[in-house]
Amino acid sequence: PRLVVGAVYKHLGEMMKLLWGPELHMNTVHVRDVARAIWHVANREDTVGQIYNVVDEGDSTQGSICAIVSELFNINHDYWGTALSTLAK
């Protein structure tokens, strides 16, 4: 989703501004790991009706991800901060 958001802000020519702050921890996962998990679940009968969470062991933050997205799309980014983000709940 962050890549799509970055592309939209690039198209609009605006700064990418996100809720919360750069310290927000985010779960990430590689597409190969998702595919492996889907294959594993699809080939086992004992997985029917079970819930799985697939995530890597990285310590990704919104700041680290946004820095990469900003560089890829050559855009600036900023955050609304805690006070405004809390109101958005």
Task: Summarize the structure in words.
- This protein has helices at residues 2-12, 31-42, 62-73, 82-87; strands at residues 16-18, 77-79.
- With 89 residues, the chain is mostly helical.
- 9% of the residues are buried.
- It has one domain (2-87).
In short:
The chain has 89 residues and is mainly alpha-helical.
Q: How much helicity do the residues have?
A: 40-55%
Q: Alpha-carbon distance between the termini? A: 19 Å
Give the mean pLDDT.
Answer: 95
* Radius of gyration, whole Å: 17 Å
**Helix and strand sequence:** HEHHEH
Count of individual beta strands: 2
Strand order of the largest sheet: 1-2
Q: What best-fitting shape do the alpha-carbon axes yield? A: elongated
Organism: Bracon brevicornis
Protein name: NAD-dependent epimerase/dehydratase domain-containing protein
Q: Any key phrases for this structure?
A:
89 residues, mainly alpha, two-stranded parallel ribbon, NAD-dependent epimerase/dehydratase domain-containing protein, Lipid_A_modif_metabolic_enz, NAD(P)-bd_dom_sf
Record the SSE blueprint.
Blueprint: H1 2-12, E1 16-18, H2 31-42, H3 62-73, E2 77-79, H4 82-87
Parallel strand pairs: 1-2
Helix pairs in contact: 1-3
